[in-house]
Structures are given as structure tokens and as C-alpha cells.
Amino acid sequence: MNFLLDSWLGDWLAGLGRIAVMTREAFGTIFRCRIVGRDLLRQIHFIGIKSQSVVLVTGAFTGMVLAAQTYFQFHKVKMDTATLAVVGVSMCSELGPVLTALMVAGRVGAAIAAEIGTMRVTEQIDALRTLATHPIDYLVVPRVTAAMLALPLLTLESITVGILSGYLVGVFLLGIEPTYLWQNMLKYTGDIDVTIGLIKSFVYGGIIALVGCYKGMTCGMGAEGVGRATTEAVVYSSISILMCNFFLTLALQRVAQMFV
Amino acid sequence: MIEVRQLTKRFGSQTILDRVDLRIESGESAVIIGRSGGGKSVLIKHLVGLLQPDSGDVIVDGESIVGKNERQLLRVREKFGMVFQGAALFDSMTVAENVAFPLQRKKNNFTAGEIEKRVAAALDMVDLPGTQNMKPAELSGGMRKRVGLARAIIYEPQIVLYDEPTTGLDPIMSDCIDQLIIRVRDHLKVTSVVVTHDMRSARRVGNKVFMLHAKKIYAHGTPEEIFSSQDAIVRQFIDGVADPKEASHF
């Protein structure tokens, strides 16, 4: 039992160390502005533009169900017009960034791990190294930078679509008075909620790309290794996002309280 | 010049190479032969710093490459070109993009026209003119290896490493690859290191042969010396005679 624990703990700590070294290398390159524009644009296109449909559908249905559920509860205490305020605050600070990140983790994190993992098992990463190209600079840096730029924009889209969908459900399906509904949303949803959501999504973008790249670059040999790396990339980045969300919420709310 | 001194490599508890010594002079064409799984590819990967030894040293042009980090090794690797066993072409790129890759990453800032010209010349050299727009998936095994060779020589390295260049190819294509290795060696005046267990290829392309056996360099010499050796182990490998004890396992 002790041996198993030692081995598991040792592996876990070694993995944590390796991902920390990879992160340091990647951010070293980013801060020294050694990013190749063409590689970055290609990744922004893949992570940002191609994820839009998934993010928009997720945002729309989340806003709609949130509006309906809030209305059913608030209607009992005659607070129907506060429905969209709840949708606004929830979408901006929690549901928008978290659900967008989880959807992108499923689509992009898995694709990154599979692509880099396949490159590893077919010796393409070794080929990069023999061609005097650092794999972190070529594979990790554009993906991390692109994810950190794209996630906040995707989150903004998700929030906007979520609130609009909630508004449409509230007005046309649930019969709430539109002016009060909208005014209450504007009154209770502040800039700070949007800012918190954007900061969170920026961090989650980094987590998704780093975990995906790490799992790809350290994947086992053969098809089984690539498959496992892909699954682990999605699972670990999703868990990291949910755990990180709790601590970020506490920290950012504390900081927000200092300014409000 | 490449020198390997007392190199030992283990994976877990398994020792792959045990105090291997090797010296390849500039301009030489060295062939490393040995049985499958004997550590030939592991040895060649140490020469370019893709693997780090557990002990021992690898010296390239008087400079030790052991213990250097990945960024320091990038400078050393500019001297090398490597052709991989499975070609290791970037499958998301076309043939032209694969071959041009090293030039586009270099800081000399080649113009698009210069890159196009060099790509065409490199593809001509490996007898694949006009394949620029094809994808690696559309190429045969022999064509992939030739594109890999074009990519390895486009930036005119001083040393070219070949990891089993003829494995999996028919005899005619193997002969074609051998001729290309000789052509590259003679035209570009490069040092060549070829890992193979194809005896015909070893005899043709090498002017020095090292035989890896039981984790060590067991024999070395000119192709004539090795191929006329009367040593039982060398003879058994060259003649391709199965060990009766091993054969009984099947």
C-alpha cells in the first residue's frame, strides 16, 4: 500500500514539476515576444473561430434554462422582474466563463492532446528538435497564447447570447414586463461581474492549452497512449477549471470588494 | 568529428548501451549495424542530443553535448540533419512546406522566392520534382523517406544521420535510397552516419562499419574488413543465420 502511495504520489509530483517547467519555458518565450505571428493566427482560428458554434449554443440554452428556473422560483414571491438580473450576474461571473471553458476543454483540449500526441508517437517532435526548433516555442506557445486571447472573447459571446436568450424567454414565453426586466438586469449586473468573468476565462484558456499540450507531449506510445492522453487532457483540464473557479471566485470577490 | 566516450544508457532497469566508444571523422560515412532492438537507434539519437546518456560523453566538433539544455542544443543541432525511420514528415503540411520548414524557422530570413528555389533544388536532388503540393499521406514509403532526406539537407548541414533508411522498402527502392545517400555525401561533402541492418546497404554506403552487439561496439573496421571477418558473431549477423536456440522458440 505504501509502495503504491509512494509511486502514485511520486508520479503526481513529478508530473506537476514537468508541467511547471513547461509553463515557465512557454511564458519565457511569450514574454520575450518570440511568437511567430502565422502560427498564432492559425491557432486563434482553430481555438476561437471554430469553437463559436459550440459556445453560442451552450450560452443560449444556459441563459434560457436559467431564466426559466429563476422565474419559477421568483414568481412565488412576486419578483418576476428580477429574473434577468440573476441571469446576468450568473452568466457574467460564473456560468459564462466556466461553461465556455468546459466546452472548449472538450473540443480544443482534446484536439491539442491528440495532435501533439500523434506527433510524438510518429517522431515528428524529435524531427522538430533535429531541425533546431524548440517544441515548446513551436507547439505550446502559439496554442497557449491563442487560448488565452480567444477564451475571453468566446466568454463575452456566451454571456451576451445567454442574457439575450434569457430576455427572450422571459418576455415572450413567461410574459414578464420587458422594461423592468431589462432595467433590473442593468441595475444589478455591474462592470465588475463582467471583469471577473473575463479574468477567469483568461486563466482557463491558459489551463486548457497547457494541460492539452502537456498531455500530448508526454503521452505513451501507440494509439492507446494517444487515446489516454486525449481523455486525460479533457478530464484534468475540466477538474482544474472547476477547482480553480472556486479559488478565483473567492480571490476576485475580495479584490472587487476593495474597489466597490 | 563525432566522438562517443564510454556511453551508457538505461531505460528503467534495462541497460541498452554499456560503455560504448565510437569515433567518426569529418567527411566519413559510418554505418552502424546490429540486430533489431540492439540499441542502434538509441545510439544515433544520442549523437544529436535527442537522448541524454546516464553516463559517458558525446563530443561534436570538440564540444561536449551532454548535460546541455534544449535551447543550448538547438545551436549544436544546426550542424545536423536527420532522416527518421518513419520519415517523421509533418502530416498537416504539404511536401513543399515540410522541406521549407527549416529555412522558414531560421533567422537568415530567406525570401519566398529563395525558399521556393531551394525546395525545388532539394526535391530534384532526391528525384521527386513536382511533388511540392502533395500531402505526406499521398506518398509511398520510399517517397516519404526521400522527402525526409530533402528536408534534412536543405539547410546544408555538416552531418546527416539516417535511422534505418531502407527498412520496409522493396529492394529497388532500397537501392535508390542508397544511391541518394552516396549522392548527398559526395555532392554536399557531409559526414554520414547510417544505422541499418540491411547488409547490402551497409556495404554500399559506408567507408567505416561499426557493429553493435551485446550493448557494445563489438567490431569495427572498413566494410571489406567487416564483411570478410571470420568472427563467429559477425559472420552470423552478416550471413543472417538464426541462432538455433532462438529459432526453437518459434
Give the low-pLDDT segments of chain A.
none
H/I helix tally of chain B: 10
Class from helix and strand fractions of chain A = mainly alpha
CATH architecture field of the domain at 1-78 and 191-244 in chain B: 3-Layer(aba) Sandwich
How much beta of chain B, percentage-wise? 15-25%
Nearest-integer average pLDDT of chain B: 90
Please give the number of β-strands of chain A. Answer: 0
What order do the strands of the largest sheet of chain B run in, or round the barrel if closed?
6-7-8-3-9-10
**Category from helices, strands and their pairing of chain B:** alpha/beta
Radius of gyration of chain B: 19 Å
CATH superfamily of the domain at 1-78 and 191-244 in chain B: P-loop containing nucleotide triphosphate hydrolases
N-to-C CA distance of chain A: 52 Å
Low-confidence stretches of chain B: none
Short description, anyone?
Chain A has helices spanning 2-31, 37-47, 52-74, 83-121, 124-130, 135-173, 178-188, 191-217, 222-259.
Protein model, in words:
- The complex is a heterodimer of chains A (260) and B (250).
- Chain A has 9 helices and no strands.
- Chain A is elongated and about 65 Å long.
- In chain A, helix 4 runs parallel beside helix 8 (191-217), helix 6 (135-173) packs across helix 8 (191-217) and helix 8 runs antiparallel to helix 9 (222-259).
- By secondary structure, chain A is an all-alpha fold.
- In chain A, 46% of the residues are buried.
- The mean pLDDT of chain A is 92.
- Chain A has one domain (37-253).
- Helices cover 87% and strands 0% of the residues of chain A.
- Chain B has 250 residues and is α/β, with parallel strands linked by helices.
- Chain B has a domain at 1-78 and 191-244: Rossmann fold.
- In chain B, the strands form 2 sheets. A 6-stranded mixed beta sheet of chain B has the order 6-7-8-3-9-10, sandwiched between helices.
- In chain B, a hairpin with a 2-residue loop joins strand 9 and strand 10.
- In chain B, helix 5 (141-153) packs parallel to helix 6 (171-188).
- The longest helix of chain B is centred in the last third of the chain and has 18 residues, at 171-188.
- At the A-B interface, helix 5 of A face helix 2, strand 6 and helix 3 of B.
